[in-house]
Amino acid sequence: MPLTIVVKIGTSSLTQPETGQLALSTIATLAETLCYLRRQGHRVILVSSGAVGVGCARLGLTERPKAIALKQAVAAVGQGRLIRIYDDLFTTLQQAIAQVLLTRSDLVQRSRYLNAYNTFQELLGLGVIPIVNENDTVAIDELKFGDNDTLSALVASLVEADWLFLLTDVDRLYSADPRSVPDARPIALVSSIKELAQLQIQTGSQGSQWGTGGMATKISAARIAIAAGVRTVITQGRFPQNIEKIIQGELIGTHFEPQLEPTSARKRWIAYGLLPAGKLYLDEGAIAAISLAGKSLLAAGIKVVEGEFRTQDAVQLCDSNGNEIARGLVNYNSDELQKIRGCHSREISAILGYAGVETVIHRDNLVLI
Ligand SMILES: Nc1ncnc2c1ncn2[C@@H]1O[C@H](COP(=O)(O)OP(=O)(O)O)[C@@H](O)[C@H]1O
Ligand SMILES: N[C@@H](CCC(=O)OP(=O)(O)O)C(=O)O
C-alpha cells in the first residue's frame, strides 16, 4: 500500500560538525533512499534544515548568527545553495523535486492552510518530492515555526502522513542528553502521549552547535504528529538507509506510536496551526467538564483572563499553575470575558447588555492538548 512519508533532516546531520561543510555522503544516501521509496510508490516529503548552516559555511562564518537580520540574510545565501545540491543529486537519480518555503502565517489562515494542503497533494500526485523549509528570509519573529521539527510535524499532520522520520545526530531518544549524561537510558518505544509525560525526559537547554531546537522540539513535534495519527521515529541522520528498514518493521531509533483515534483535521488546525492570542485560567470544575466529560466551556469556570483577543481567536486553557490543558476558539472577546468570567450563563445578557451565546468555547471548537 502506498504510504505518505515525511522525513526531516537537521543541520547537525547535513553538515560536518568540525567545519560546517556539507556532509555530501549523507545527503547523497538520503537522496538515494528517498528515490527508492518513491519507486516503491510511496509519497515522500523532505523537510530539510540547513539554510543557515550552509549559508554560514559559504560566507566563512564560524558560528550561527544571533542577530535576526544577519540570520535571515545568511539563510537566503544558504537556501539557494542547499536546493541546488538537492536538485543536482535528485536530477542524477531522475527524480523531480520542488522547493516549498513556508511561514507560520501560511498555516494560521484557514484558506491558506487549505491552499498549502492542495499544493502538497498536487506535488505528491505528480510524483514530485517537495523539499520544505521555513522561509527564514521573510519570516518575522511572531510568525515563525522557529524550528523544523515543529514544521515537519505540522506538514505531516497537514498531509495526514503515515510516517514522520526525525533524522538527527543521535541514534535515538534517551532519558537525558547522552552527551552530558553518559548513563542515560535509551528509549525504544513510546506508546502514548501519557507515557511520554511519565518518562520525564530531560532535554537540556539546546541542541548541537548548529541545530536549533535540540531534543525538546523533537519531542513536541512527536506529540503533534502522533495526535494526528502519524507514527513518528527519531533516528540517526548518518544512516538514511535505515528508513527503509524501519518501514519494513525493524525497531531502529525511538518509535512513537500514533494515537488510535486521530484528532480531526479542523481541530488540529485549531490546536497547532493557529497561534493563541490569550490565556484563560479555569477552575477545577471547568477542567473536569472539558477534559473528562467533553463539555463546552462556560463563563462560570473561568477564573482569570489574560491577553487581548477578539471573538473567534484561539486561546489557551490552563489550570491554576498555568499548565495548558486545551485550546479553543472563543465566542467572546477579552473585554467581554473580563466582565462575564465566573458568572452563570443566564447572567451574560444582563452584564453585557446584549444576548450572547451560552458557551464561551463550544466543544466543537475545543481541543485537549
Ligand atoms: N534526551 C535526549 N536524548 C537524545 N538527545 C538529546 C536529549 N536531550 C538533548 N539531546 C541533544 O539533542 C541533540 C540533537 O538536537 P539538534 O542539535 O537540534 O539536532 P538537529 O540539527 O538534528 O535538529 C543531540 O545532539 C543531543 O545532544
Ligand atoms: N530553517 C532553518 C533550520 C531551523 C532548524 O530547525 O534547524 P535544525 O534544528 O537543524 O533542524 C535552516 O534552514 O537553517
Automatic annotation (TrEMBL):
Domain PUA, residue spans: 278-361
Location relative to the cell: Cytoplasm
Binding of ATP, residues: K8, T168, D169, T212, G213, G214, M215, A216, T217, K218
InterPro entries: AceGlu_kinase-like_sf (IPR036393), Asp/Glu/Uridylate_kinase (IPR001048), G5K_ProB (IPR041739), Glu/AcGlu_kinase (IPR001057), Glu_5kinase (IPR011529), Glu_5kinase/COase_Synthase (IPR005715), Glutamate_5-kinase_CS (IPR019797), PUA (IPR002478)
Keyword annotations from UniProtKB, A to Z: Amino-acid biosynthesis, ATP-binding, Cytoplasm, Kinase, Nucleotide-binding, Proline biosynthesis, Transferase
SUPFAM superfamilies in UniProt: Carbamate kinase-like, PUA domain-like
Family: Belongs to the glutamate 5-kinase family.
Pathway listed: Amino-acid biosynthesis; L-proline biosynthesis; L-glutamate 5-semialdehyde from L-glutamate: step 1/2
Main location: cytoplasm
UniProt xrefs under PROSITE patterns: GLUTAMATE_5_KINASE, PUA
EC annotation from Swiss-Prot or TrEMBL: 2.7.2.11
Molecular function terms from GO: ATP binding; glutamate 5-kinase activity; RNA binding
SMART domains: PUA (SM00359)
Biological role: Catalyzes the transfer of a phosphate group to glutamate to form L-glutamate 5-phosphate.
Pfam families the record matches: AA_kinase, PUA
GO BP term (any one): L-proline biosynthetic process
Catalytic activity: L-glutamate + ATP = L-glutamyl 5-phosphate + ADP
Descriptive protein name: Glutamate 5-kinase
GO cellular component, one term: cytosol
Record has ATP-binding as a keyword: yes
Binding site for substrate: S49, D136, N148
